[in-house]
Amino acid sequence: MALLLPTKRIAGIELRGAIGGTVRPQAYLPLLERVRRSRRLSALVLAVDSPGGSAAASEELYLAVKSVAAVKPVVSFIRDRGLPAPTTLAPRPTRYWRCVTGWLAPSG
């Protein structure tokens, strides 16, 4: 009996902490690039819990997430805090859903 496994998977990345402080673009940019290039990953879920942070670091992460969104669906999820820099991490959402734990917005 053959076991059929899914060939496509969804990547999940969690950003927790101050953008530019705990969340450093240098750590996430290579990861986002791998997600963008991967043929095995069909989408990205970005979970954000951040009180804000550096505008420059937020812009770097935004551009990296935007490049992922150009080739596959990206869903961004604000867990608890998303003020104000984390709200700019993903491209402008096309739809919003209100969840008990925060806002869920698909991007791309």
Descriptive account of the structure:
The protein has 108 residues and is α/β, with parallel strands linked by helices. The chain has helices spanning 25-37, 55-69; strands spanning 9-16, 41-50, 74-82, 97-99, 102-107. Helix 1 (25-37) runs parallel beside helix 2 (55-69). The longest helix has 15 residues, at 55-69. The protein is globular, with a radius of gyration of 14 Å. The model is unreliable at 104-108 (pLDDT under 50).
Instruction: Estimate what percentage of residues fall within beta strands.
Output: 25-35%
Overall radius of gyration? 14 Å
Uncertain runs:
104-108
The termini sit apart by 40 Å
Gross morphology: globular
Total count of helical runs of at least 4 residues: 2
Order of helices and strands: EHEHEEE
Mean pLDDT value: 78
| Largest sheet strand order | 1-2-3-5-4
Strand pairing plus helix content: what structural class?
Answer: alpha/beta
Helix percentage: 25-40%
Main sheet attributes: strand count, strand direction, barrel closure: 5 strands, mixed
Number of strands: 5
Helix and strand arrangement:
Elements: E1 9-16, H1 25-37, E2 41-50, H2 55-69, E3 74-82, E4 97-99, E5 102-107
Helix pairs in contact: 1-2
Task: Give a short overview.
The protein has helices at 25-37, 55-69; strands at 9-16, 41-50, 74-82, 97-99, 102-107. It is of the alpha/beta class and 108 residues long. Helix 1 packs parallel to helix 2 (55-69).
